[in-house]
Design brief:
11 helices
Protein backbone atom coordinates (compact mmCIF):
# COMPACT_ATOMS: atom_id res chain seq x y z
CA UNK A 1 0.00 0.00 0.00
CA UNK A 2 1.01 3.61 -0.56
CA UNK A 3 1.24 4.47 3.15
CA UNK A 4 3.76 1.66 3.69
CA UNK A 5 6.02 3.21 1.07
CA UNK A 6 5.88 6.52 2.91
CA UNK A 7 6.68 4.82 6.21
CA UNK A 8 9.71 3.14 4.64
CA UNK A 9 10.76 6.47 3.14
CA UNK A 10 10.49 8.36 6.43
CA UNK A 11 12.35 5.56 8.22
CA UNK A 12 15.15 5.80 5.65
CA UNK A 13 15.25 9.59 6.02
CA UNK A 14 15.42 9.38 9.82
CA UNK A 15 18.18 6.77 9.90
CA UNK A 16 20.11 8.64 7.17
CA UNK A 17 20.11 11.90 9.15
CA UNK A 18 20.96 10.32 12.50
CA UNK A 19 23.70 8.18 10.92
CA UNK A 20 25.21 11.21 9.19
CA UNK A 21 25.21 13.24 12.41
CA UNK A 22 26.70 10.36 14.41
CA UNK A 23 29.52 9.89 11.92
CA UNK A 24 30.21 13.63 11.94
CA UNK A 25 30.25 13.64 15.74
CA UNK A 26 32.71 10.75 15.97
CA UNK A 27 34.96 12.05 13.21
CA UNK A 28 34.96 15.78 14.03
CA UNK A 29 33.96 16.34 17.65
CA UNK A 30 35.71 13.26 19.06
CA UNK A 31 38.60 13.71 16.59
CA UNK A 32 38.58 10.05 15.54
CA UNK A 33 40.62 10.48 12.35
CA UNK A 34 41.48 6.84 11.70
CA UNK A 35 39.05 5.85 8.93
CA UNK A 36 40.53 2.36 8.49
CA UNK A 37 39.74 1.43 12.09
CA UNK A 38 36.40 3.21 11.83
CA UNK A 39 35.50 1.26 8.71
CA UNK A 40 36.73 -2.02 10.20
CA UNK A 41 34.62 -1.48 13.30
CA UNK A 42 31.50 -0.70 11.27
CA UNK A 43 32.06 -3.69 8.98
CA UNK A 44 32.60 -6.08 11.89
CA UNK A 45 29.49 -4.96 13.75
CA UNK A 46 27.47 -4.96 10.53
CA UNK A 47 28.62 -8.51 9.68
CA UNK A 48 27.67 -9.80 13.14
CA UNK A 49 24.25 -8.14 12.97
CA UNK A 50 23.66 -9.44 9.45
CA UNK A 51 24.53 -13.01 10.45
CA UNK A 52 22.30 -12.69 13.51
CA UNK A 53 19.38 -11.47 11.38
CA UNK A 54 20.01 -14.38 9.01
CA UNK A 55 19.92 -16.88 11.87
CA UNK A 56 16.67 -15.37 13.14
CA UNK A 57 15.17 -15.54 9.65
CA UNK A 58 14.69 -11.78 9.33
CA UNK A 59 16.79 -11.59 6.16
CA UNK A 60 17.60 -14.19 3.51
CA UNK A 61 21.28 -14.99 3.04
CA UNK A 62 22.63 -17.11 0.20
CA UNK A 63 26.09 -18.45 -0.54
CA UNK A 64 28.20 -16.74 -3.19
CA UNK A 65 30.52 -18.74 -5.42
CA UNK A 66 34.08 -17.61 -6.09
CA UNK A 67 33.33 -17.02 -9.77
CA UNK A 68 30.41 -14.77 -8.84
CA UNK A 69 32.49 -12.88 -6.27
CA UNK A 70 35.40 -12.07 -8.60
CA UNK A 71 33.52 -9.37 -10.57
CA UNK A 72 32.80 -7.65 -7.26
CA UNK A 73 36.49 -6.99 -6.54
CA UNK A 74 36.75 -3.66 -8.47
CA UNK A 75 33.53 -2.40 -6.90
CA UNK A 76 34.75 -3.51 -3.46
CA UNK A 77 37.97 -1.53 -3.88
CA UNK A 78 36.00 1.54 -4.92
CA UNK A 79 33.75 1.05 -1.89
CA UNK A 80 36.77 0.98 0.42
CA UNK A 81 38.08 4.17 -1.19
CA UNK A 82 34.64 5.72 -0.91
CA UNK A 83 34.41 5.08 2.84
CA UNK A 84 38.02 6.01 3.60
CA UNK A 85 38.11 9.26 1.60
CA UNK A 86 34.56 10.14 2.65
CA UNK A 87 35.43 9.76 6.33
CA UNK A 88 38.52 11.94 5.91
CA UNK A 89 36.53 14.61 4.10
CA UNK A 90 33.55 14.57 6.50
CA UNK A 91 35.88 15.00 9.49
CA UNK A 92 37.15 18.31 8.07
CA UNK A 93 34.25 19.74 6.04
CA UNK A 94 30.82 20.91 7.20
CA UNK A 95 27.92 18.64 6.24
CA UNK A 96 26.24 21.03 3.72
CA UNK A 97 29.58 21.60 1.95
CA UNK A 98 30.34 17.86 2.01
CA UNK A 99 27.04 17.04 0.29
CA UNK A 100 27.63 19.82 -2.25
CA UNK A 101 30.93 18.23 -3.25
CA UNK A 102 29.49 14.73 -3.09
CA UNK A 103 26.83 15.73 -5.62
CA UNK A 104 29.58 15.90 -8.22
CA UNK A 105 29.55 12.10 -8.26
CA UNK A 106 26.54 12.55 -10.56
CA UNK A 107 28.85 14.38 -12.97
CA UNK A 108 31.36 11.51 -12.86
CA UNK A 109 28.60 8.96 -13.52
CA UNK A 110 27.26 11.10 -16.35
CA UNK A 111 30.66 11.32 -18.06
CA UNK A 112 31.18 7.56 -17.74
CA UNK A 113 27.79 6.83 -19.29
CA UNK A 114 28.43 9.26 -22.14
CA UNK A 115 31.90 7.88 -22.93
CA UNK A 116 31.35 4.17 -22.31
CA UNK A 117 27.78 3.77 -23.53
CA UNK A 118 27.20 6.80 -25.73
CA UNK A 119 24.08 7.65 -23.74
CA UNK A 120 22.29 10.77 -24.93
CA UNK A 121 21.55 13.51 -22.43
CA UNK A 122 18.27 15.36 -21.91
CA UNK A 123 18.35 19.14 -21.80
CA UNK A 124 17.18 19.27 -18.17
CA UNK A 125 19.82 16.75 -17.14
CA UNK A 126 22.52 18.74 -18.92
CA UNK A 127 21.47 21.89 -17.04
CA UNK A 128 21.47 20.04 -13.71
CA UNK A 129 24.95 18.61 -14.38
CA UNK A 130 26.25 22.10 -15.13
CA UNK A 131 24.75 23.46 -11.90
CA UNK A 132 26.30 20.64 -9.85
CA UNK A 133 29.71 21.17 -11.40
CA UNK A 134 29.58 24.97 -11.19
CA UNK A 135 28.66 24.99 -7.50
CA UNK A 136 31.36 22.44 -6.59
CA UNK A 137 34.06 24.36 -8.46
CA UNK A 138 33.14 27.66 -6.82
CA UNK A 139 32.62 26.31 -3.30
CA UNK A 140 36.36 26.16 -2.39
CA UNK A 141 36.69 29.80 -3.47
CA UNK A 142 33.75 30.81 -1.26
CA UNK A 143 34.35 28.65 1.81
CA UNK A 144 35.47 30.99 4.65
CA UNK A 145 37.49 28.19 6.29
CA UNK A 146 38.82 26.44 3.21
CA UNK A 147 40.63 23.21 4.11
CA UNK A 148 42.78 21.98 1.22
CA UNK A 149 43.20 18.48 2.66
CA UNK A 150 39.49 18.08 3.32
CA UNK A 151 38.60 19.10 -0.22
CA UNK A 152 41.27 16.80 -1.65
CA UNK A 153 39.81 13.82 0.22
CA UNK A 154 36.35 14.89 -0.95
CA UNK A 155 37.53 14.70 -4.56
CA UNK A 156 38.78 11.16 -3.98
CA UNK A 157 35.48 10.31 -2.31
CA UNK A 158 33.29 11.58 -5.14
CA UNK A 159 35.45 9.81 -7.74
CA UNK A 160 34.93 6.51 -5.93
CA UNK A 161 31.20 7.15 -5.50
CA UNK A 162 30.73 7.91 -9.23
CA UNK A 163 32.19 4.94 -10.75
CA UNK A 164 47.53 10.52 5.55
CA UNK A 165 47.21 13.62 6.88
CA UNK A 166 49.23 13.58 10.16
CA UNK A 167 47.60 11.68 12.98
CA UNK A 168 45.58 13.86 15.32
CA UNK A 169 44.86 13.23 18.96
CA UNK A 170 43.45 9.73 19.49
CA UNK A 171 40.35 9.71 21.70
CA UNK A 172 40.78 8.18 25.14
CA UNK A 173 39.71 4.54 25.18
CA UNK A 174 38.18 5.21 28.60
CA UNK A 175 35.74 7.70 27.11
CA UNK A 176 32.17 6.42 27.35
CA UNK A 177 31.14 9.05 24.81
CA UNK A 178 33.65 7.62 22.35
CA UNK A 179 32.43 4.05 22.89
CA UNK A 180 28.80 5.03 22.54
CA UNK A 181 29.52 7.08 19.42
CA UNK A 182 31.34 4.24 17.66
CA UNK A 183 28.69 1.67 18.65
CA UNK A 184 25.89 3.96 17.52
CA UNK A 185 27.68 4.68 14.23
CA UNK A 186 28.11 0.97 13.46
CA UNK A 187 24.52 0.12 14.42
CA UNK A 188 23.06 3.03 12.46
CA UNK A 189 25.17 2.13 9.44
CA UNK A 190 23.67 -1.36 9.50
CA UNK A 191 20.14 -0.01 9.96
CA UNK A 192 20.68 2.43 7.08
CA UNK A 193 21.71 -0.48 4.86
CA UNK A 194 18.55 -2.40 5.73
CA UNK A 195 16.38 0.69 5.26
CA UNK A 196 17.98 1.32 1.86
CA UNK A 197 17.35 -2.26 0.69
CA UNK A 198 13.76 -2.12 1.97
CA UNK A 199 13.06 1.20 0.25
CA UNK A 200 14.66 0.18 -3.05
CA UNK A 201 12.70 -3.09 -3.11
CA UNK A 202 9.39 -1.23 -2.87
CA UNK A 203 10.12 1.80 -5.04
CA UNK A 204 11.60 2.59 -8.43
CA UNK A 205 15.10 4.05 -8.68
CA UNK A 206 13.60 7.46 -9.46
CA UNK A 207 11.44 7.48 -6.32
CA UNK A 208 14.37 6.28 -4.22
CA UNK A 209 16.33 9.25 -5.57
CA UNK A 210 13.62 11.58 -4.26
CA UNK A 211 13.83 10.15 -0.73
CA UNK A 212 17.63 10.25 -0.85
CA UNK A 213 17.50 13.91 -1.89
CA UNK A 214 15.01 14.78 0.87
CA UNK A 215 17.22 13.03 3.42
CA UNK A 216 20.26 15.08 2.45
CA UNK A 217 18.31 18.34 2.51
CA UNK A 218 16.98 17.47 5.98
CA UNK A 219 20.48 16.66 7.24
CA UNK A 220 21.89 19.89 5.84
CA UNK A 221 19.06 21.99 7.29
CA UNK A 222 19.49 20.55 10.79
CA UNK A 223 23.29 20.32 10.88
CA UNK A 224 23.92 24.02 11.78
CA UNK A 225 21.86 23.47 14.95
CA UNK A 226 24.02 20.48 15.95
CA UNK A 227 27.54 21.41 14.78
CA UNK A 228 29.33 24.73 14.60
CA UNK A 229 29.61 25.97 11.03
CA UNK A 230 31.41 28.91 9.41
CA UNK A 231 29.70 30.08 6.25
CA UNK A 232 28.99 33.15 4.18
CA UNK A 233 26.52 34.15 1.48
CA UNK A 234 28.63 32.91 -1.50
CA UNK A 235 29.30 29.48 0.06
CA UNK A 236 25.63 29.03 0.98
CA UNK A 237 24.71 30.04 -2.56
CA UNK A 238 26.93 27.20 -3.84
CA UNK A 239 25.06 24.78 -1.58
CA UNK A 240 21.68 26.01 -2.82
CA UNK A 241 22.70 25.89 -6.49
CA UNK A 242 24.14 22.39 -6.13
CA UNK A 243 21.00 20.96 -4.60
CA UNK A 244 18.79 22.84 -7.01
CA UNK A 245 20.78 21.05 -9.69
CA UNK A 246 20.29 17.72 -7.93
CA UNK A 247 16.55 18.37 -7.63
CA UNK A 248 16.47 19.09 -11.36
CA UNK A 249 18.43 15.87 -11.97
CA UNK A 250 15.94 13.84 -9.94
CA UNK A 251 13.07 15.47 -11.85
CA UNK A 252 14.70 14.78 -15.22
CA UNK A 253 15.04 11.09 -14.32
CA UNK A 254 11.26 10.92 -14.00
CA UNK A 255 10.77 12.39 -17.47
CA UNK A 256 10.47 9.97 -20.44
CA UNK A 257 13.72 9.48 -22.36
CA UNK A 258 13.73 11.09 -25.77
Amino acid sequence: MQWRRHVAGFAFCFVFVVSCFTNKFVLSVLKFTFPTLFQGWQTSVGAVLLLLCGKLGWVELSRISRSAALPWIPASLLFVGNIYAGSRALSRIDIPFFFTLQNCSHVVSHVILRVAHGQKTQRLKSISICLLLLSAINLPLCDPKFDYGGYLWAVGHLLCVGDLVGALEFPSLQSHTFHCGCCASALLGFLLLLATVKLKSGLSQEHFGIWNFLSKVTAMSLSPFIFSMDSNAPSLMCVVISHAGEALLVYSDREPQL
